[in-house]
Every structure is written in structure tokens, then in C-alpha cells.
């Protein structure tokens, strides 16, 4: 797609118009632009197309509200564009040469980018930048892919607003079939999936459960439920404060079924306050399923799972209220937690309950470690369902994750060695957008 | 069929969403965006279920005069009053000067701030327990915490100003944060990320299917 510079009237000071395609910035962008992407401007050497319509009007400064006596800034020029690669056709990169008046103190405040579907307007402001900035990305929601647009840069100053002497276009934002910056993610994801599937297949074929080290935090869940049974008090299960799109919540709800199965076996009441509506309905199903699998469906209490509030501290207030009023003997906090982690764990500690916590939010782990009896750290939370179920297929997936960790360690070591010797290829390949 | 169809839908949508991470083209990105918008709509329906459960559970507790029933009554009254005022005020209920905004600013925000403020006291009591030196690990934790705290306050800098730059407490504190702390943090994150992916794969492939409930 050729870059079209709409040549128009000069501002009368530099006498150069329609040079955007020949500027240093233009050349740089043209050299950097991957030729494979349709819609990318070919700036250097592109013949300027002169459209004699509103050019003279476009170059006239708008001095409405200007400070008297201060001249309008001279216009920016050399506006060039480049379709943002590896995207869905929703962004365009723009760059221009600064106004010659930027060197004069107090003459230029900044620039504003305007877009139109025709070179004569009407123009819509899509972005504003401060003086000194000569590039921006138009990724406003109104930008549509495969629609020809024209862009103009205006220079703002105390003396008024001066439009550039030319407009640039037609500009097309196009989508691509593959995000090239994510090659490394694709390769590593495929490798990881291959490892997991291999070990799942092996475990299924042999029917033998692979060895998994003992995880005291998970073993402690049954101990905690046992203690609650002895004391004749309920078990409180908190599945985190995130919605179902957080995988920690998903994992917590999966573990909830095992916990419900155990409480059903021990005939101990279970309380599950939930933050969001979707996890609430799933939690109901999981608890019901747990009682069913334990062979005690009649013991299932539909009120054991309650919806509280998606608001973080309202949720905390409700749970600490349950801790103080109902005095559960065991608190199980598994899922995504943020600032409320210590509020919950410390309130639970003061109530004297046995506490088991687990989260993948590394920032919250110290609070749980301090205030809880057992803590599942990061990946242990995700291993819990496989560990509890003991199903060879599920445990096999843990083996796959372990092998991937070895691959990542080797990759990190290789990266350290290569970087030490000034080779940046691997680092660049791993960098993603 | 009761289980197969949900399993198929889960696998198809899951794989499609993974594909959308790598393929930005509109053929994939537009349906992927649509699916995400669908999820928002489903959540909106879910809030009705949640609200109904909240009302039922708390009204029953009030009717049975369970322990703490006055609090539940306040909760129910707060819920009803807030919803009714929001409905009466219509689409602009969040505008400045509305009753809904007043409830949010004067009641809800104050109570949230009060809950959050409790954190300061909880941190103090938790830190007191954490820094009791009973084992080698606890001793390491206490020493590291002491150095980091001293490195973050002006007093630490004044006390070690005479030492060479790398041995000043602020440099040591920064080193603890940048090297051992960061290394451990990243190890946890990498492990957790792999756990997330493994769980996702198990759900997509139907190996982990407990979310489909226990009824066959």
C-alpha cells in the first residue's frame, strides 16, 4: 500500500511540503516495516499524490482562544504511518517530525492527531501528546480494520493550533493470521502439552499411579476436618475472592468436591461462602457431588454454600463474622487471595481454628505462612486435586509439569550463558508481546 | 449425552480460546471476543441467582431467629434499599449527587476503609509471631526482615553511612529484594503458571471433569 502524502499549501516559512515520505523518520519506519504485511506503508520513494481540495484551509492556524501577541507555532510535518504488525487490525503507528518551533520556549504545547475517512474531513481527534513526543499509536475503539483513513497532525501552542500542511493517507489497519512475537510461547506450550499428554497416556496404559511426594498441606485437610468432627463444629471453606476466570478459583472448586466428600463421610457440617455468582453455582454442584460420591446425598444441605458479595471487604466482613459467631474448628482457604489474606487468616488464628491455606499469589503467601498451620505454595495448590483423587491420569499430568520445569531450568541456564557471551538471540526469541 | 455435550463444548471453546492467543486475524478474534462478551452476560444472569440465594438464606435465618439474626436483617434491608434506590434512579444512578452515590461514598466506602484499616493491627500481631526465632529458618527470616526494614528507613542509612557503598544497609536490603527474594518469587510463579496450564489442559481434555457435578 503506497503511502500517499497529500501536498497542500505551505505555512510560508519553510517552503517544503509533502516530504513525509522522504524524511529520516519515514526512511527509518520504512526500513523497519516488514514487507509481508499488507497495508504497511511504503514510504520512501512513494510518489506523492496531490489532492487539491481543502489544503489551503488545512494549513491556516486556528487562533481561537490564543494568547495575544504570541505567534501560532509552525506546523509539524512528515507524518508517516505503519500498520501495527501481529494484531487484529485495530491499531496504526504514526510518527512525524517536530515543529521547528519546539526549540523556542513556550511556543509549542504539544500535538494532536486527527483522523478522517476523506482527505477533506471531517476530522476527529484520536490522540494528543505533549511537546517533544513525535510518535503515537492510534488504537482507539473507533478505528476499524480495512477502512481507508487519512491522518493529520496539528501543532498546539499558546498562539493557536496550526494544522500540518498536508494529510497522510489512505491508511489501512489490517489483521494478520499469526502473531509472530508469540512463536516461543507456541513452541513451549506445545512442548508442555506433549509432556503432559505423554505422561497421562503412560499412566493410563500402565494403570499405575506415578510417585508423588508427600504434600503435608493437603494431608492436613483431612486432619483439620477430623478435628472439626471431634469438636462437633463446622468446617469453613473459602474458595478465594476471584471469579471463575481465575484458574485458582477453578482449582479450588475442584478441591472443594474432595473436601465435601470427606465432610460427608465424617458427617461434619461444611460452610462455603462464595464471592461471585458463577463460582457460587459451581460450588453448590461440587458440594452436592461430594456428598453424592460419599454415598450420603441425604446429608447435603443446600444452605451450606452461600453467596456473599463480590466486594472484597464486604466478603471479608461476612467471613470473619462466621468465624466469630459459628466458631468453625477448621478453616480452609484455597484460591486467589489479595489484601484480605491476612485479615482472614489472622481472624481465624485468633478464633483458635486449625487453618490450611493455599494460593498462587506469591505476595500473599507470607501472610498465610505466618497465620496458618499449613500452607500450599503456588503449584501445590494445582497438584491438590490430582493428589487427593490419586487417579493415575491426573497424577500423570503432574509429571508432565515437572519435566517442563526441568526444560525451563535448562532454558534459563542456556539464556544466562548466552547473555554472558553477548548472544541475545534466545532472549529476543523468548520476549513476547 | 448429559456429560458428553458439556465436555465437547468445553474442549471446543477451550481450544478455540487458546488459538485466539496466537491468531489475531478477525476470523478468530471476532468470535473469541463474542465468547468473552457471552461470559459477561452469563455472569449477569448469575447475579440474580446469587441475590436470590442471599435473600433466601438470610430471611430464613431471621425468621428462625438464628444467632446474629439482627445483622442479617440489616443486610437484607441494606440490599433491598440499595437495589430499590438504584432502580428508581435509573441509568444515571452512579452520577454525582444521587442517593446511590451517597450510599456508596458515605456508607460502603467508610465500612470498607474500616475493614482495610484493621490490616495494620493484624500485620503487627502476625509480624510479632513471625519474627520469634525458634528455628534456623525463622532466624534467617528475622534477620532478612530486619535488614530490609532498616534499609527502607532513613535511620538505617545514617547508621551505616560510614561503610563502603555495597555494605550499607540500603544496598544489602536492595540486594535481598532483587536477588534471593526475586528468585524465589519467580520460581513460585513459574511453578504456578505450569500448574494453571496443566489444570486448564486437564479440563479442556475432559480428564478433570468433577466440575460437571456428580450426577451421571
At a glance:
With 433 residues, chain A is of the alpha/beta class. Helices cover 39% and strands 18% of the residues of chain A. In chain A, helix 5 (247-266) runs parallel beside helix 10 (379-389) and helix 10 (379-389) packs antiparallel against helix 11 (392-420).
Overview of this structure, please?
The complex is a heterodimer of chains A (433) and B (216). With 433 residues, chain A is an alpha/beta fold. In chain A, 50% of the residues are buried. Chain A contains twelve helices and 15 strands. Chain A is elongated, with a radius of gyration of 31 Å. Chain A folds into two domains: 5-171, Immunoglobulins (Immunoglobulin-like), CATH 2.60.40.10; 210-389, Rossmann fold (3-Layer(aba) Sandwich), CATH 3.40.50. In chain A, the strands form three sheets. In chain A, strands 1, 4, 5, 7, 8 and 9 form a six-stranded antiparallel β-sheet that branches. A six-stranded parallel β-sheet of chain A has the order 12-11-10-13-14-15, with helices on both faces. A three-stranded antiparallel β-sheet of chain A has the order 2-3-6, covered by helices on one side. The two termini of chain A are 25 Å apart. Mean pLDDT of chain A is 83; it is low at 1-58. By secondary structure, chain B is an all-alpha fold. Chain B folds into two domains: 1-93, no CATH class; 131-203, no CATH class. Chain B has helices at 4-22, 26-63, 69-89, 99-130, 136-151, 154-159, 169-204. The model of chain B has no long low-confidence stretch (mean pLDDT 90). The interface between A and B is large, with 84 and 62 residues.
